[in-house]
Design brief:
Largest sheet: 7 strands, mixed
Strand order of the largest sheet: 6-5-4-3-2-1-14
Helix content: 10-25%
Number of domains: 1
Radius of gyration: 17 Å
Low-confidence stretches: none
CATH architecture: 4-Layer Sandwich
CATH class: Alpha Beta
CATH superfamily: Ribonuclease Z/Hydroxyacylglutathione hydrolase-like
Shape: globular
Number of strands: 14
Mean pLDDT: 95
CATH topology: Metallo-beta-lactamase, Chain A
Length: 260
């Protein structure tokens, strides 16, 4: 299995429009520190699955026939806006799997074009090519799924964004399932008030502790989180890494974390 973090930002991205905090100024000066909408590509054998579609240049990144499926965590615009252009393409239908949200986003269901929507059910596993995916309910303002993804040789990857904490049944599933790699929402730095829709660092670290010994990559990062990190270098354990756009995690890295 190979995982590529194509985008690691929150809805506003980094740099945030109009903001001159140190993180945003750095991102404007150095492209490597920019964060685009949270999106990941998971590959195993000939299977390529895109998790979320917030990137607006999907038609340029992925030629026709290059994706096995698109899997959506939820229907907030920053996670599906790339579908609006893609749908008007010509060619074979593209399967799009997602949670049972009857509203979806705008008119995607009504005018779906070449997109073929499939509604998933929590904890009901599906198979797409060489990958098996189990939808895991998360805690967010829209119906949202994380995904437990396993390839044909047993490598396991969990993608958990957007959420604030984990529902008890999802947490128990992950403890038993024991992923080698976890991508975890960490939108905000430590906050005094309870977060409303996304993990802050305190909650993310608590989740990471329950999922030991998995390697945890923090994603869905805001400019506030990046600015906090500029002042708090070295605060994270070696098992926890803040992901950046275009970062690739190979099957060797996943196996090493599982002790193989």
């Amino acid at each position: 299995m190979r995982v590529t973090f194509l985008g690691t930002g929150d809805a506003g991205g980094v740099p945030l429009y109009g903001c001159n905090c140190p993180a945003c100024m750095r991102a404007r000066a150095v492209a490597a520190f920019r964060r685009r909408p949270c999106t990941a590509l998971v590959e195993a054998g000939d299977t390529r699955i895109l998790i979320d579609a917030g990137l607006t240049d999907l038609t340029e990144r992925f030629p026709p026939g290059s994706l096995s499926a698109i899997v959506v965590t939820h229907f907030h615009p920053d996670h599906v806006q790339g579908l609006f252009h893609l749908r008007w393409g010509i060619g074979a239908r593209i399967p799009v799997y997602g949670p049972p949200d009857s509203e979806g986003c705008a008119d995607l269901y009504k005018n779906h074009g070449l997109l073929e929507f499939h509604r998933l059910s929590k904890f009901d596993r599906i198979t797409v090519g060489d990958l098996m995916l189990t939808p895991l309910p998360l805690i967010h303002s829209k119906v949202t799924f994380g995904y437990a993804i396993e390839d044909s040789i047993g490598q396991r990857f969990a993608y958990l964004t957007d959420t604030v904490g984990l529902p008890p049944r999802t947490e128990e599933f992950l403890k038993d399932w024991r992923p080698g790699l976890v991508a975890l929402d960490c939108t905000q730095p430590p906050e005094n008030d309870p977060p409303r829709n996304h993990n802050d660092l305190t909650i993310a670290l608590a989740i990471a502790e329950t999922l030991t010994p998995a390697k945890v990559w923090l994603t869905h990062i805001s400019h506030d989180m990046d600015a906090w990190r500029l002042k708090n270098v070295g605060e994270l354990s070696p098992r926890i890494t803040v992901a950046h756009d275009s970062q690739v995690v190979s099957e060797i890295d996943i196996n090493r974390r599982r002790g193989k």
